[in-house]
Amino acid sequence: MDTDQVRSRWDATKGACPTRQVLGRIGDTWTMLVISTLEKGGTLRSGQLKSIIEGITQKMLTQTLRNLERDGVVRRDVLPTVPVTVSYTLTPLGLSLAAAVATMRTWAYDHMDEIAAARDEYDANR
């Protein structure tokens, strides 16, 4: 099956399409920040991620990491130390997603002034 045939099987505008859930997950702010942080930092522990990603709660970080692990984007490694050490790293699938996240991050950086101006104009007219 070629790429066009595979893509034609999915339609994220349809409620039952599984790609909708995937897009919702990867479009989440915390997901993007966790992926970006792991891409830059390599293998990190939960506490390291939490200290780097300002504002994320432990509950949200845990939930985000579990979801990414379930989707095959992040690998969780448990080391038999006392206390147990758990670290996270991007899988090859996660690294491929990190490239797309980096493109979106760059777009946001490049257009932040325009977005801020548009918001100011919108708010002034309300």
**Name of the CATH first level:** Mainly Alpha
Question: Helix share of residues?
Answer: 55-70%
In the CATH scheme, what's the topology name? Arc Repressor Mutant, subunit A
Unreliable spans are none
CATH architecture verdict = Orthogonal Bundle
Radius of gyration: 18 Å
Report the sheet with the most strands, covering strand number, pairing sense and barrel closure: 3 strands, antiparallel
Principal-axes geometry comes out as globular
Topology of this structure?
Blueprint: H1 3-8, H2 18-26, H3 29-41, E1 44-45, H4 46-52, H5 58-70, E2 74-79, E3 85-90, H6 92-124
Antiparallel strand pairs: 1-3, 2-3
Helix pairs in contact: 3-6
Features:
single chain, 126 residues, mainly alpha, Arc Repressor Mutant, subunit A, three-stranded antiparallel β-sheet, 3 strands, 11% strand, globular
Describe what this molecule looks like in 3D.
The protein is mainly alpha-helical and 126 residues long. It has a single domain (3-124), classed as Orthogonal Bundle (Arc Repressor Mutant, subunit A). The chain has helices at residues 3-8, 18-26, 29-41, 46-52, 58-70, 92-124, and strands at 44-45, 74-79, 85-90. The chain has a 3-stranded antiparallel β-sheet with strand order 1-3-2. Helix 3 (29-41) packs across helix 6.
Summary of the model, kept short:
The chain is mainly alpha-helical. The protein contains six helices and three strands; from the N terminus they run αααβααββα. It has a three-stranded antiparallel sheet with strand order 1-3-2.
